[in-house]
Amino acid sequence: MLIGKIFIGGLAPHTTNESMKNLFQSTYGPVADCKVMTTTDKGTGMTKSRGFGFLKFEDPATVDAVFGGPKGSTPDQVLSDLL
Asked: Nearest CA to 5 among 62, 69, 77?
């Protein structure tokens, strides 16, 4: 059974669920779920990325495209927009 869920690490503090989902969706295809793990600064109350998250594609086979498939963009090139 294919899950289609991947770990994304090395995210910038300003990365949001929406920005990560939009980037991967525009590059690879429909995203079913996206979660950037966050923390809240106790001093300022600001929420920021903890530097990692998870992404699940609607089509589990899309993971193959992310890791060397025919789309032509590697995960590092895509993630450079989020760093």
From this structure: 62
